[in-house]
Amino acid sequence: MAEVEETLKRIQGQKGVQGIIVANSEGIPIKSTLDNSSTVQYAGLIHQLVMKARSTIRDIDPQNDLTFMRVRSKKNEIMIAPDKDFFLIVIQNPSD
Amino acid sequence: MEIVHVYSKLRSEFGRQCLFSDRPAELLLDLPPDPSLTLSFIQKSPRDQAVQACWETSEHQVNTERFETTSCGINHMEGGWPKDINPAEMEQTIRVRKKVEKDESFINSVLQLGSVMEHCIRQNNAVDIYQECFEDEEVVEEIQEPPSAKTVNIFRDPNEIKRTVTSLSWQPDGGRKLAVAYSCLEFQKSSKDISLDSYIWDIENPNRPEMMLKPTSPLVCLDYNPKDSHTLVGGSYNGQIAFWDTRKGNQPVEFSSLEHSHRDPVYKIIWLQSKTGTDAFSASTDGQVLWWDVRKLAEPTECLVLDPSREGNLDQALGATSLEFEPTMPTKFMVGTEQGLVISCNRKAKTPAEKIVCTYDSHHGPIYALQRNPFFPKNFLTVGDWTARIWSEDIKESSIMCTKYQMSYLTDACWSPVRPSVFFTVKMDGVLDVWDILFKQSDPTLSLKVCDNSLYSLSVQDNGRLVACGSQLGEATLLEICSGLSNLQKNEKSLLAAMFERESKREKILEARQREVRLKERSRSEQSREEEAGREEGEEDPKQLIVRAESDFYSLVEAEVKRREKKDEVMKEKDICEEKDVKDEEQKGTSE
């Protein structure tokens, strides 16, 4: 339990990180550092995106699987690390 | 030699059974190889043999039916909670969250994902992988790709009975919207069922017009106010002027009274530059140009009758089919008439007689388009009959440049707002031509067939890249021009200025020459009337000239021949001298 907190705190402490969300496989945010409405929005939308991306990879090659996703936009970068049951979303403003 | 075996049989023996018998092989012919023949052959080694081993494919294009989409918002609700938990209840959701947090797999997942994530975050912080490395480098000279344009969108008249697109106007300040005026200009062809509406389209959405404008009579021309992008003014088929404010709905805010409007369709209406920003003027084939203040459309503020004899006589007036106004020259404006004359007028003149400054006799037919070059306001473009002509204000006799006669009638034209040497024209065979006079003057640089029916109107957006053209069947096509034709090239302005100068000078010289010739003719004809003997002189003059020319010619030829002979002599002397020198040297050499 404490390790989870520590990990998340460490990530939060990195330069440029704006927010972290941990959501489960149904898109329900479990832990978040952002406000509720943003969290819900991010979790819902990114959940759909991850599902689509994962199914794409697996359609092309069933042995393959999605390991990481970076979505770079004009204002920031959203990094998504998916797992079997959960996924971790980090929003970072890259240093430039 | 031929290998022949004659087989003859008596006719009476036909049909008899063939009695074949064996016999040993017989050599009939032996052709030994003839080595001498190899000389007439060349050995070909290696030999190229093409082999294709792939399956046949063919290219096929498919265009799907238009898919109507509308965009609407989605309401995001929290979901995914287990059935018994009410998402609104804070306590329950917190309880569920806490339970998940205690789960083993959660902890493991987070730890693992966390380390992966940290790696990427650190990567981001270390190096910006998306940075522009080559931003500061000089932009490489673009390879001159052939000019092209592609259709971006087509806006179709949603009504059953299609009307012609008679006028297009881009919204100022960015031009996200295009106002299109629809009407049926053919005499007495419009039926009662025809819709009167004109539309404002959003260029991103070709499925449905953004807004409808409902006048009392179909609109022939439309113009957005360059100062206020919500107001438009339009001239209609029955001569009335209407003023819309798009914030206030579909109906015109105001329209002019029937008694004081034009008596013929209003072919062009343009906003003027004024302090109040509410002035516009319109022209119609009834021979009048009327000025309006849109706040009070009941009566025009001013009126000008296009009478070339400057008497203000409406019966003699010429019908106007196009109007031109350039905000950089607010005191002058030009009117193009049905008779092919361009009349240049001065707004500030006190009397109507002084209003009309001069006329240019331009085309054989009505002038459908008239526009000054936005970079060189002294030069303007006119289109009527089968040519497009460029004029200089100072030269009234003829145009300084003229395209050759096209295959079909030109219906509209305009200059590109970004490139001074580029202009667009549309024709009755549905072709849009892009002309670049610095590149080629005899032919359009780019010629595109936009549609099968005729194109009637044209408008370029302020950025010079998007061109909208309207056709007879109510289709407004939006095209994007390639960057080569919509970006200012180096030295373009100075080159074009030089070109216009040159052409104007040429015309001036031609004009002066014409005048001289005319004067001579006149003086000669006067002389012949005064003296009868003078007529003989007139005839002798050419004869004398011929004799004089002959003598000049012969003397010149003789002089040349003499000169050549002298030269030959000099050459010969030189040769002899040289030979002597050579011989001297040889002697010297041999002696040494």
Automatic annotation (TrEMBL), chain A:
Protein keywords: Cytoplasm, Cytoskeleton, Dynein, Microtubule, Motor protein, Transport
GO BP annotations listed: microtubule-based movement; transforming growth factor beta receptor signaling pathway
GO molecular function per UniProt: dynein intermediate chain binding
Primary location: cytoplasm
Transmembrane parts of this sequence: none
Pfam families: Robl_LC7
SMART domains (alphabetical): Robl_LC7
GO cellular component: cytoplasm; cytoplasmic dynein complex; microtubule
Protein's name according to its UniProt entry: Dynein light chain roadblock
UniProtKB/TrEMBL annotation, chain B:
Keyword tags: Cell projection, Cilium, Cytoplasm, Cytoskeleton, Dynein, Microtubule, Motor protein, Repeat, WD repeat
Extent of Basic and acidic residues compositional bias: 520-536
Listed GO MF terms: dynein heavy chain binding; dynein light chain binding
UniProt entry tagged with the keyword Secreted: no
InterPro entries recorded: Dynein_IC, WD40/YVTN_repeat-like_dom_sf, WD40_repeat_dom_sf, WD40_rpt
UniProt subcellular location: Cytoplasm, Cytoskeleton, Cilium axoneme
A single cellular component GO annotation: outer dynein arm
Lineage top rank: taxon: Eukaryota
Ranges where the record places region Disordered: 520-547, 563-592
GO biological process assignments: cilium movement; outer dynein arm assembly
PANTHER family assigned to the protein according to its UniProt record, in alphabetical order: DYNEIN AXONEMAL INTERMEDIATE CHAIN 2, DYNEIN INTERMEDIATE CHAIN
Family: Belongs to the dynein intermediate chain family.
Name of protein: Dynein axonemal intermediate chain 2
